[in-house]
Design a protein that fits this description.
The complex is a heterodimer of chains A (516) and B (379). Chain A is built from 17 helices and 24 strands. The radius of gyration of chain A is 25 Å and the shape is globular. Chain A has a six-stranded mixed β-sheet, with helices on both faces. Chain A has a six-stranded mixed β-sheet with strand order 16-19-20-13-21-22, with helices on both faces. In chain A, strands 2-1-4-5 form a four-stranded antiparallel β-sheet, with helices on one face. Chain A has two domains: 233 residues, Rossmann fold; 182 residues, P-loop containing nucleotide triphosphate hydrolases (Rossmann fold), CATH 3.40.50.300. Chain A is an alpha/beta fold. The longest helix of chain B is centred in the first third of the chain and has 30 residues. In chain B, helix 2 packs across helix 14, helix 3 packs antiparallel against helix 11 and helix 5 crosses helix 6. Chain B has two domains: 73 residues, no CATH class; 262 residues, no CATH class. With 379 residues, chain B is mostly helical. The chains are: A alpha/beta (516), B mainly alpha (379). Chain B: It is found in: Cell membrane. Chain B: Keywords: Cell membrane, Membrane, Transmembrane, Transmembrane helix. Chain B: InterPro entries: ABC_transp_permease. Chain B: GO terms for molecular function: transmembrane transporter activity.
């Protein structure tokens, strides 16, 4: 290799207390390439990038940029070294315009006007060069997520970034938006920019990167040319053993109707119509998957079914209507009707992070006969029950006295699943079951969900991961803007069609997409 | 993985805060030309050197236990009840109403009735702010503060109007002798211990200790306590679990107000034996400091109440025997509150760093948000 690498990390190590987040990591990324970094949650990807961007200081190791040893004590130093970062959660001021956001923190002088004028012409140039067109005067609040991400990229380029780091950039995008993003990245690459893409999606790695590094438990286990590898091989490198990427399941054998939802509508406090006439059925022994980009009404749907959001319309369980006027704290009556709920956000809703595992195993069921004695909690019984559930769901470490926040994401999710599945519901609501969960645990969670279906339970699965929906669901409904755009069978549809539905287009008989 | 061992959290931090407050107070005393050594000697002998001193220390501590518990219960539901003062005043009204207008044959039943009435009045005074918070989102801090003023005005009206005793003073008549509570002198006399007759500490002390135990059981052992804590940690999670925010806010605030009201059996029935103006004397506010210092745990509240009882009685002795004005005593008490309550993080954060460093590893930078855990920080 005669060329100088754009970035070279030599022997980077970083520990947080007893946790070794990065262990002696070295990589070389050539200029004008896209380098993927893949690994499970907690593998140390984000720590590594935070070190490169100056958020953390490495305990050991060196950073070389374009052949020069560089110290990066803070993000200002990273920016002046030509590194730009696009975070998973955008860092934009919601009520500023695109232009103001781009300039923010990079103003030329005390006066704003000259900076804005300069930025305007600069943005125009960048937009032409890289297919990065955005309206500079649009307010961030009014533009979509894909557009916001472009603003983040523009921010980095405006600051003269030659090296762009993107952290899980497609998490919030529709497939079409993701494709657009990848076209932009290809364009940047052609102009000689160096791109580091952090992701846990194997498909993205295969589609767009030139080289890929795999991280596991803080170590770099392999760096390979993308062309020379395959998804199963990468998965095995990530997890350290062979994993099933596809869930193995038999065709569903649906029986009696468990839930019938008709014309569900929600208007929130601000008068925004969140759900618009949603109707569907789920039968015993089948999984209905709800696909859609986050924020299109799926959360509200789960909240209504789970009993903590008001709605109009009707929901019948085994033919019996349930009360929708019960206000925002009617979860107990839903549980009594055989509905269990694994909420989308386990840290905000599903668990009390400061409660121990055993306190969490009773959460929502704490009035159950088995868990109480008079007005008191039966702590001994709950602890014993928790131990059993932790064993069956392979929660690690299997210690009921640890607080929920001291478990990893996957193990937290297993605690929630254990609580809800073991309660033997007729209908299980599952929101984003594998968000922030490592591949090994994903496999386990998917198997549990299918096993519950095979026991003759009805399951509503909400996920923004299309792969997950396609792999698990027996029927797929796509939500957009509070509506169900249509129902498809997984073997009669593909990502392209679902992607169009997710973006609010319906496919006309002629095959040309049109606005709904 | 916790950042610090538990003993450091519950003992070391308050201790360091206390020492810093004491040092600063010493400087203040030095500054006005008095001897800090003399002052501390005087405080200790005055507050703890005799059964008379102890009698006052424990009397104040009883007040602070009730108000400290009141603030703690509300804290667990993440409600900041600043209204302990007003609720305690109303509790006094409750005690007076029961003891002035109803004849009681014996102090035991009178105490039961007065406790129930004081709790009911205190709870009622907390009910409206609680309702406004739960239904209308009016901030509980603002409304409870305002209710303190209303309570004071209400008491004024009652004591110059309908409940005023004949004579010059705005106060009720003295309660009948049958309702007077046994003091520690009477109680310890039974088992042959000689206790000062003049000190006001009375049987309410044991009611307060019982209340500490009851609150502990409520918060950590009952299903209601489980729900209150869950709501305090995370409202979205509580709603998911079917816990009604309205119910928790109301119940927690009613219990809180009731506990603050109960203070009146000590200062009104036990000490004054009639209701006077400004009967609570700021104990409702001290309760906030006591709850903060006691980490909202009944045992911590008990210990912190003793400490503040000591500061109150010792401070009074200082004002009496040294050339230190009453106002400076308040400054010293304020320093203790400042260090143990408000400046908690000033001690905590360096201490956490030391403990992490002691584990031989470098300290992690503060996470971007509270939710990020050590396991995830490794990502």
């Amino acid at each position: 290799m005669s060329q100088t690498p754009a970035i070279e990390l030599k022997g980077i190590s970083k520990a947080f207390g007893p946790v070794q987040a990065n262990k002696d990591i070295s990589i070389r990324v050539m200029p004008g390439t896209i380098h993927g970094i893949i690994g499970e949650n907690g593998a140390g990807k984000s720590t590594l990038m935070s070190i490169l961007y100056g958020f953390y200081k490495a305990d050991k190791g060196e950073i070389w940029i374009n052949g020069k040893k560089t110290e990066i004590p803070d993000s200002q130093a990273a920016i002046s070294a030509g590194i730009g970062m696009v975070f998973q959660h955008f860092k934009l001021v919601q009520n500023f315009t695109v232009l103001e956001n781009v300039v923010l923190g990079a103003e030329d002088s005390g006066l704003l006007r000259p900076s804005l004028t300069r930025a305007r012409s600069e943005l125009k140039k960048l937009a032409e060069e890289y297919e990065l067109s955005v309206d500079p005067d649009a307010v961030i609040d009014d533009i979509g997520v894909g557009m916001q991400q472009r603003v983040e990229i523009l921010k980095a380029l405006y600051r003269g970034a030659d090296i762009l780091i993107l952290d899980e950039p497609t998490g919030v995008l529709t497939p079409a938006e993701a494709d657009h993003l990848f076209r932009i990245l290809e364009g940047l690459k052609r102009e000689g920019k160096t791109i580091i893409l952090i992701t846990h999606k194997l498909r993205e790695i295969m589609d767009i990167t030139d080289t890929v590094s795999v991280m596991r438990r803080g170590e770099m286990t392999a760096t390979v040319k993308t062309a020379d590898t395959s998804p199963p091989e990468l998965a095995e490198l990530m997890v350290g053993r062979k994993v099933l990427l596809r869930v193995e399941k038999t065709p569903a054998r649906p029986k009696e109707k468990i839930i019938e939802v008709r014309d569900l509508n929600i208007t929130d406090d601000k008068g925004v119509h969140r759900l618009k006439g949603v109707s569907f059925d789920i039968h015993a022994g089948e999984i209905l998957g709800i696909a859609g980009v986050a924020g299109n009404g799926q959360s509200e749907l789960l909240e209504v079914l789970g009993g903590y959001e008001k709605a109009t319309g009707s929901i019948k369980i085994r033919g019996e209507a349930i009360d929708l006027t019960g206000g925002k704290s009617d979860g107990a009556s839903r549980r009594a009707r055989g509905i269990s709920h694994v909420p989308e956000d386990r840290q905000r809703e599903g668990l009390i992070m400061d409660y121990s595992a055993w306190e969490n195993i009773a959460f929502g069921y704490h009035h159950d006969e088995a868990y109480r004695s008079g007005p008191f909690m039966n702590n001994a019984a709950i602890r014993a029950d928790c131990e059993g559930k932790m064993q069956r769901f392979d929660v690690r470490p299997p210690d009921p006295n640890l607080t929920a926040k001291s478990f990893s994401g996957g193990n937290q999710q297993k605690i929630v699943l254990a609580r809800e599945i073991e309660h033997n519901p007729d209908l299980l609501l599952v929101g984003q079951p594998t968000r922030g969960v490592d591949i090994g645990a994903i496999e386990f969670i998917h198997q549990e969900i299918v096993a519950l279906r095979d026991k003759g339970k009805a399951i509503l699965l909400v996920s923004v991961e299309l792969d997950e929906i396609l792999g698990l669901a027996d029927r797929i409904a796509v939500m957009f803007d509070g509506r169900i755009m249509g129902e498809r069978l997984p073997d009669q549809t593909d990502e392209k069609e679902l992607g169009l539905l997710m973006a609010g287009m319906t496919t006309a008989p002629g095959g040309t997409p049109q606005e709904a | 993985m916790d950042r610090m061992p538990r003993w450091a959290d519950v003992i070391l931090i308050p201790l360091i805060s206390l020492i810093l407050a004491a040092l600063l107070s010493a400087l203040v005393i030095l500054f006005i030309g008095e001897s800090p050594i003399e002052a501390i000697k005087l405080m200790i002998s005055g507050a703890l050197g005799s059964t008379y001193g102890w009698g006052y220390t424990l009397y104040y501590a009883t007040n602070f236990m009730f108000t400290g518990l009141a603030v703690s219960v509300a804290f667990h539901a993440r409600m900041f009840n600043i209204g302990g003062e007003g609720q305690a005043l109303l509790g006094g009204l409750g005690v007076a109403v029961v003891l002035v207008y109803i004849p009681w044959p014996h102090w035991t039943i009178a105490l039961l009735a007065a406790t129930a009435s004081a709790a009911a009045f205190g709870a009622a005074w907390a009910a409206l702010p609680a309702y406004l918070q739960a239904r209308r989102g009016s901030h509980i801090v603002i409304t409870t503060i305002m209710f303190n003023f209303i309570a004071a005005a209400l008491l004024n009206w009652a004591l110059v109007g309908p409940m005023k005793a004949p004579g010059q003073e705005p106060a009720t008549v003295s309660f009948p002798e049958a309702t007077n509570l046994p003091t520690l002198h009477d109680i310890f006399g039974i088992i042959g211990i000689d206790w000062s007759r003049a000190a006001p500490a009375n049987v309410s002390l044991f009611v307060a200790i019982a209340a500490c135990v009851a609150v502990w059981a409520l918060i950590w052992r009952t299903r209601l306590g489980y729900e209150i804590r869950a709501f305090g940690y995370s409202e979205p999670a509580a709603r998911y679990a079917g816990i009604s925010p309205f119910k928790i806010i109301m119940v927690a605030m009613l219990i809180s107000g009731g506990l603050a009201g109960c203070m009146a059996i000590n200062n009104v029935q036990g000490e004054a034996e009639r209701l006077v103006l400004n009967a609570a004397e700021g104990a409702g506010f001290i309760g906030i400091a006591v709850a903060l210092m006691g980490r909202s745990h009944p045992l911590g509240v008990f210990l912190a109440a003793l400490l503040f009882g000591f500061l109150y009685q010792g401070g009074a002795e200082l004002a009496l025997w040294m050339n230190i004005q009453r106002e400076l005593i308040v400054v010293i008490q304020a320093l203790v509150i400042l260090f143990t309550g408000a400046l908690d993080n000033m001690i905590r954060m360096p201490l956490e760093k030391i403990f992490l460093a002691a584990r031989r590893k470098s300290p992690p930078p503060p996470g971007p948000d509270r939710k990020s855990t050590s396991a995830e920080a490794a990502e």
